[in-house]
User: Fold these one by one.
Assistant:
Number 1:
Amino acid sequence: MRSHYCGDLRKEHIGEDITLCGWVHRRRDHGGVIFLDVRDREGLAQVVFDPDREESFALADSCRNEFVVEIKGTVRNRPEGTVNPEMPTGEIEVLGKELVILNKAETPPFQLDEHQNVGEEVRLRHRYIDLRRPEMQEKMRFRSKVTNAIRNYLDDNGFLDIETPILNRATPEGARDYLVPSRVHEGQFFALPQSPQLFKQLLMVSGFDRYYQIAKCFRDEDLRADRQPEFTQIDIETSFMDEEGIMALTENMIRKLFLEMKDVDLGDFPRMPYSEAMQRYGSDKPDLRYPMELVDVADLMAEIEFKVFAGPANDPKSRVTALKVPGGAQLTRKNIDDYTKFVSIYGAKGLAWIKVNEIENGVNGLQSPIIKFLGDDVTMAIMERLGAENGDIVFFGADKAKIVSEALGALRIKVGEDLNMAQCEWAPLWVVDFPMFEETDAGLTALHHPFTAPSCTADELKANPLEALSRAYDMVLNGCELGGGSVRIHDQEMQAKVLEILGISDEEAEDKFGFLLNALQFGAPPHGGLAFGLDRLIMLMTGTESIREVIAFPKTQSASCMMTEAPGEVSAAQLRELNIKLRKTP
Ligand code: ASP
């Protein structure tokens, strides 16, 4: 129907007869002439109807916002003084000659004006309208371009796009599975994939050598702010490549993507061992845009009377650390109270601090409720270790290591943001040398997943599992994990050993992924890969605050869809067919 997109019209089209199709963005009656701003996915064009053409004029007059129209007309210069330099089509307008109303529209639940502040609930309930807004159109278009660039890169590098099944067997991969009842197999369930992990490994056993898939994954987790129950991964697996090869290939992919899409050169990504990241930044995904670091001071506090510090200082599972914030002495009591509340989210019981006013006067130049407990010598020794200068504030954390690292690690970023301390716009890095296992209340669990290869022998692993490192790597950008992966175990015995250490019995292993253990015995090549979170990547690249903004039809934080109202009840007949009887919660 259309000859041009509205948003594509420019000076060079002047004099052309054209046909536009789109939505009425706005109708203005300027005393005798009707202006319609017509919108399509490429932008807006101004169409003018004058009363000479009675029929089309009357139709234009009857148009309301969001009517769908087809317009024939001629492109012409805007009259002197009415050029709009803010609009890409602002130099021209269309003289409307024929107008067909293709469909009418009710008054939309909110204006599509980008300056309107509309509640997210309303937007999500009417997402099809929300997606008409230029900024949402732009995000979806950006996302499409990113996936296209990634496909091209992987295709150029010999990767094959292979689909893996959605209806699977439940596997222990960390999060809770979404289950689908089987009608044909009474009492049995499929699980939706948390990731295509095992299938991509099997594809390597099959000899495909380089696989990728832009794959939907499903995890039934209690949702935190930035999670979706279904999300998209760029899933990659290769054979006969070690971690160096895989990291180089994928780093290059992301670097190229940023150059192409944003004209940003991320440079070479530095590498940091996991232990160093935890030590210096309290996080396995450090945000290196902020220069501040955590400095451990347990050794200086070991002898003091004050239990709050001395306790953790003498406990090997605890940590006592300090965070020096340059310029932080300006923080008010209220600011500090807010930060205290903030760290309590991570389990910290308080937030001790020292302000540095006149360091040349020793402890007399410091201001803090805790100096009297630390004693002058210890206080000054801490100041010296931190290189404290006038105008600084020092925050302290003393508790179980996990709590301290998480709390002060998060505080570091929060204060950095609040005080505008970012030193660059983009800070990528690889975090490497992760431990194989971590200790939880339920025993040892795999830090990455149970198919990750250790960097030691099976015997060493067995002898000292908590000391063992894995061949896993995470790509981190601005404090977000963009992607993670590992070299996998391709040796059946090693795989059996890891499962044994994880406390998974032979029967359970056989039951849950006997197929993988079998496959490893039929000529599995050395292989490894990684997966990027596509939604998160787009979010970062577009500078968007919420992951929901870059997904066309996202779920809410309570894992439901405002528009379709999924999940919903099903009929008794459907349940009967599935042999499912609901137990009503009392
Ligand atoms: N399957 C892993 C994940 O979803 C990524 C990988 O190891 O390739 O996190």
Number 2:
Amino acid sequence: MSTQLGTLEELPQEYRDAMSQIAVAPLWPQMRKVLPHDAPMPVTQAHCWAFSDIRPLLLRAGELTPVEKAERRVLFLVDPGRGAGAMQATSTIYVGMQLLLPGETAPAHKHTPSAARIVVEGEGGYTVVDGDRLPMEAGDLILTPGGCWHDHGHCGSKPVIWLDALDLPLFYYLEASYAVEAPLQTPRNRPDPSEVEYRAAGLAPARRRDIAPPPSYPMMRFPWKRTEQALREYARHGDNGIVELDYINPETGASCLPTLGFTAMMLRQGKSVKPVRRSASAVFHVIAGKGHSTINGKRHDWSAKDVISAPVFAAIDHVAEGDDAFLIRIHDAPLQEKLGFYEERNR
Ligand code: 1HN
């Protein structure tokens, strides 16, 4: 049932002024805006950011602004639905591209929002997370969960660029976002847990759980090489459906971060993929390949290193052209599941 509700204009001006003066407002003119029928009305507009557009401006930032004056040298991606300066690619997802030049370091800090990086370009970069030195190779997913110290460094010879994804919009909205700063960490002299404790899928250290419960974030680095192998094998031997693998906490099977989910996708060349409509918003980062995605009827052409956003409940068709394509989907389904409303709808 849908009835037309009363508008603000229908009310006498002197009544409207009286409400303003005591800091109250009538709900009914805004009721449908905050509670639309059957599905949300997203502010987010789908968009494709070409890496070839971002890269020259980011390298210019390297000339214009020393890292000491930036702390993090980042160009962030602005949702066209929100307009200039909005630190949001979707309602909950912040995405930026960060540049570190050879020899530079970005000092340690920890903050309430959680972050993850996907390495886009360059060799020799590393992030130290709570004392573990994590090498950054192309396509690697590297976590810096809320409350974990992290600093970045670069011992290679060419610029390093990575994508940052954070749940910052959510934390900012909650008035919960802040950081604590510290000098660079001294890394432990050993490979990170993805090379040691969690070297193989399905194996985790045997522990006396009463004395040594597993860490909340046991694995902070997910090397792309292994992810790509896993996707290719799954595509070869799985059914003919969508080839997707979720990044999980190897101790619990839960999403690797509490609010943001990360899903590695392989699109077989020439095959159209039509996922269900999800209540989660999403940002896709193209690791390799080229193709196009039609999102709510509008076509977005993409190639390697580009970033595409999609609002909640978007109808999406992906097509890889020429060769198989690999993407990582960043989404907020883990947050929505925790809040009890994550939903998928058939097309
Ligand atoms: C942050 O801590 C990093 O540590 C990057 O590299 C981007 C954007 C907003 C807030 C914190 C980093 C960020 C950020």
